[in-house]
Structure formats: C-alpha cells, structure tokens
C-alpha cells in the first residue's frame, strides 16, 4: 500500500444479518402484539433501529432481517423507515420472515438456523464477511472497528463482549480469554463465571454480535444443519465448536463503542425487562444522558412520521401545560398537564389537571383529566380514563395492572377494560 493511502473499509464487503424473531417474553404484555425488536424506544425509534443504524453508520449497505414472532409491526416499520436502500447502488435491505424455505415442516429453529435457511440469499450479496447482530439491544457501535480487528487477528469468529462484574455475569454467555484476547472457553450462563486474566473481579459477557468470513460460516452452517444433536444456535453450538477447534477472538465493546464525548462511558443496555425498559427511557431525560440521541455524527435512523410540533396549552393555576426534564415528541398536545421527568412518544394527548411523573407513554395514548401517573409505562394507543391514579398505592395498582419488582406499573388497554368492567 502506498504511503498515506487510506485502507478500503471492510464494511463495503460485509453484510449485517439481524436476528429479530424473538418475542421478548420478559416484557410481558408489551410484546403481546409485537416482537421485542419492534418495541418503541426513545420517543421516535424502535429497538431494532439501533442495530440497523449502527450498521448503516459503519458503512454497511447490505442488510437482512430475520423475523418470526408477530412480525407485522416490525416489517411495517422497516418498510416505512428503512426503504431508502437502492439496488442500483448495490445496497439491499431484505426482510426474511420464517417461511419454511428449506422444508415444509420447520420454521426457524434457532439463531444459526435462521441464517442457514437463507444461505442462497446471502450468496447473492457477494460479501466476504457477515456481521451477525441481535435486534433487541440499545447501544452505539462502529462495526468497522470490529471487522478490522477480526481480519487483523486472523480469526475464524470474533465475538463482541462487554466487561461486567463477575457477580452479574451468570445471566450472559461468558468467555474465558488468554492474554492475547483469544477465547479459550465459552459458557452459557455459568454459575461460576471466569474472571479476566488482568482483573479477576470482572468477566467478559457476549453481546450476541459475531463476525465471520462468509465462506467459513457457510460451511459451518451446513455442518450444523446436518447434526441431529445441534440446537441450531450460535451461542450453544457454533461458537463453542470454534473455541474448541478454531480461532475465536474476543472484541471488547470499549474498543468500538461510539461515544458522544471521549470521557463518556461505554453504553449498552438489554431492555428486555419492564424495569430495564422503563429505566433506559427515563435515563434519556437526564441533564447529560449516557446515550446521546442528539449526536448528529452517529444518528439513530428511524421512520420519520409527518406530524406537527408538540403543543403546550393553558396557563392557569393547577391547569398549566408544561414539561420539565422531559422528552416530548411531535404530535403531542399537553393540555393543562404537568409533565416531569417523563418521555412522551409521538401523538400523545393529555388533558387538564393531569400529572405525569417518570412516565413512559407510548405513541397515541390519551391521558384523561385529573389522572395522576407515576413510574408507569403506558402502552401504545391506551385511553387512560379521567381520574385514574397509578403509582401511589402499589397494592391497588397490582389488582388491575402489572407491577414490576422495581415498582414500575405497566398499563395496557385490556387491563383498563377489565378494571372498567369489574
């Protein structure tokens, strides 16, 4: 390479394969009608937008999304918000619902099987590398840095990993590594996670992000499909096999996470529980949030609805439309309501004398007069009746709604209908 020449970005010869078929059962009623990656987050986005935006911002222009559980909401969102790829520029975003493409018996049987059933489609992309992504986490990451690490290390697979306290690592896939970062052992949710060579109190947890060379992955998937004992899963089958018989390398998230400022922490969240989902949304109302949605250098792309600006009306004592330390999206009308440290998604309407505190209100919900809601998640399109009080009496709340171990109350329309009919 001549002096001063900028190396070609590996992302130009890579594709992102997003696994987005999971229900996310720990979100309970929030995923009754939608897959976890389609759950709303951060005011305008869906959870899947983070993986897709990371790929786009990293320079990847070929993507595929494997869907399975209640996929309509997810597919509709991707069709509306991610329809700007142009085939004439060699750009693609394919949505791959489970459709019994291999036989007439099985849907996707696991994460590896979801890729195996679409081998011919990946072949048609003509790529050298495949980045396997989970579609249900919130973070910012430059996959180009991970791709370059993969190539420079001569790895068969590179696994993105988080540094977590060893005491908290039992809920993850955990890696033991040597001093050079080579993975020597890969365990799913071990009771006694291994510590790091340089810090025994910390462990390396898998993020569910993998980089493979496509020819090797293609061969491994075919071998896995022929093994009747396989779980058809990356974390349970393919990765452990490469740890034993190949070269598996750990890539630390700290080396490729995208920070709004140099001293910001490496931000990654699994918002797979109601408490975690509520907290991650409420954290965005902080004066200086760890996740910066206002960073134009690494934007989170999503479906941009054509809605008018948010509107605040009434200026009377006890009937003042205001929001403090809150995010209020377009299309909202805050009519005589006090909103504090809350996140209101697109098209929320509130009525006079209501009060919201630490509330995450999903799109198009209606809040009735004199309602008082604290530490709640309100599902999309819910019509909260006048005078409803939630967040002040946990025992009464639990009679009608789902109250989490962390004291967050989920409100859905069926729950309100049952309460009204009691």
UniProtKB/TrEMBL annotation:
Q: Is Transmembrane helix one of the keywords UniProt gives this record?
A: no
Domain (Nucleotidyl transferase) ranges? 16-285
- Record-annotated site: Could play a key role in the communication between the regulatory and the substrate sites: 68, 107
Q: Where is the Glucose-1-phosphate adenylyltransferase/Bifunctional protein GlmU-like C-terminal hexapeptide domain?
A: 308-411
Residue spans making up a coiled coil are none
Query: What keywords are annotated for this sequence in UniProt?
Result: ATP-binding, Carbohydrate metabolism, Glycogen biosynthesis, Glycogen metabolism, Nucleotide-binding, Nucleotidyltransferase, Transferase
- Pfam families, per this entry? Hexapep_GlmU, NTP_transferase
Q: Does the keyword Zinc apply?
A: no
Protein name as catalogued = Glucose-1-phosphate adenylyltransferase
Can you state which reaction this protein catalyses? Answer: alpha-D-glucose 1-phosphate + ATP + H(+) = ADP-alpha-D-glucose + diphosphate
Question: What are the recorded Gene Ontology BP terms?
Answer: glycogen biosynthetic process
Write out the residues that bind alpha-D-glucose 1-phosphate.
108, 173, 188-189, 206
Give the Enzyme Commission number: 2.7.7.27
**Gene Ontology MF term list:** ATP binding; glucose-1-phosphate adenylyltransferase activity
- Pathway(s) annotated for this protein in UniProt: Glycan biosynthesis; glycogen biosynthesis
Q: Report which gene this protein is encoded by.
A: glgC
Record Gene3D superfamilies = Hexapeptide repeat proteins, Spore Coat Polysaccharide Biosynthesis Protein SpsA, Chain A
Q: Which family does it belong to?
A: Belongs to the bacterial/plant glucose-1-phosphate adenylyltransferase family.
* Subunit: Homotetramer.
Stated role:
Involved in the biosynthesis of ADP-glucose, a building block required for the elongation reactions to produce glycogen. Catalyzes the reaction between ATP and alpha-D-glucose 1-phosphate (G1P) to produce pyrophosphate and ADP-Glc.
Q: Which InterPro entries match?
A: ADP-Glc_PPase, ADP_Glu_pyroP_CS, GlgC_bac, GlmU/GlgC-like_hexapep, NTP_transferase_dom, Nucleotide-diphossugar_trans, Trimer_LpxA-like_sf
């Amino acid at each position: 390479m001549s002096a001063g020449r900028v190396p070609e970005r590996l992302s130009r010869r890579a594709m992102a394969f997003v696994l987005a078929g999971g229900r996310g059962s720990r979100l309970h009623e929030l995923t009754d009608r939608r897959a976890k990656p389609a759950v709303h987050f951060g005011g305008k986005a869906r959870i899947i937008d983070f993986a897709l935006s990371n790929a786009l911002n990293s320079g990847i222009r070929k993507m595929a999304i494997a869907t399975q559980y209640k996929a309509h909401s997810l597919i509709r969102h991707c069709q509306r918000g991610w329809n700007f790829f142009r085939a004439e520029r060699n750009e693609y975003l394919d949505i791959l619902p489970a459709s019994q493409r291999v036989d007439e018996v099985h849907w996707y049987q696991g994460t590896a099987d979801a890729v195996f059933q679409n081998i011919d489609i990946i072949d048609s992309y003509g790529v050298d590398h495949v980045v396997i992504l989970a579609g249900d986490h919130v973070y910012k990451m430059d996959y180009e840095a991970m791709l370059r690490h993969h190539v420079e290390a001569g790895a068969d697979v590179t696994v993105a990993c988080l540094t977590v306290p060893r005491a908290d690592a039992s809920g993850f896939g955990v890696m033991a590594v040597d001093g050079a970062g080579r993975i020597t052992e890969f365990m799913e949710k071990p009771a006694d996670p291994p510590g790091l060579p340089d810090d025994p109190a910390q462990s390396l947890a898998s993020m569910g992000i993998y980089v493979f060379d496509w020819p090797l992955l293609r061969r491994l998937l075919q071998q896995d499909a022929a093994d009747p004992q396989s779980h058809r899963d990356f974390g349970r089958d393919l990765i452990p096999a490469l740890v034993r018989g190949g070269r598996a390398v750990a890539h630390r998230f700290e080396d490729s996470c995208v920070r709004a400022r140099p001293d910001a922490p490496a931000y990654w969240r699994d918002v797979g529980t109601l408490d975690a989902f509520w907290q991650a949304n409420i954290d965005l109302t902080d004066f200086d949030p760890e996740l910066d949605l206002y960073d134009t250098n690494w934007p989170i792309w999503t479906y941009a609805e054509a809605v008018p600006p948010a509107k605040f009306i009434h200026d009377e004592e006890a009937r003042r439309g205001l929001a403090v330390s809150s995010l209020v999206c377009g299309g909202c009308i805050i009519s005589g309501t006090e909103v504090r440290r809350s996140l209101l998604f697109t098209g929320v309407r509130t009525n006079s004398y209501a009060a919201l505190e630490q509330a995450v209100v999903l799109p198009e919900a209606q809040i009735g007069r004199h309602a008082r809601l604290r530490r709640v998640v309100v599902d999309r399109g819910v019509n909260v009746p006048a005078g409803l009080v939630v967040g002040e009496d946990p025992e009464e709340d639990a009679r009608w709604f789902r109250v989490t171990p962390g004291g967050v109350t989920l409100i859905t329309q069926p729950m309100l209908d049952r309460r009204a009919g009691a």
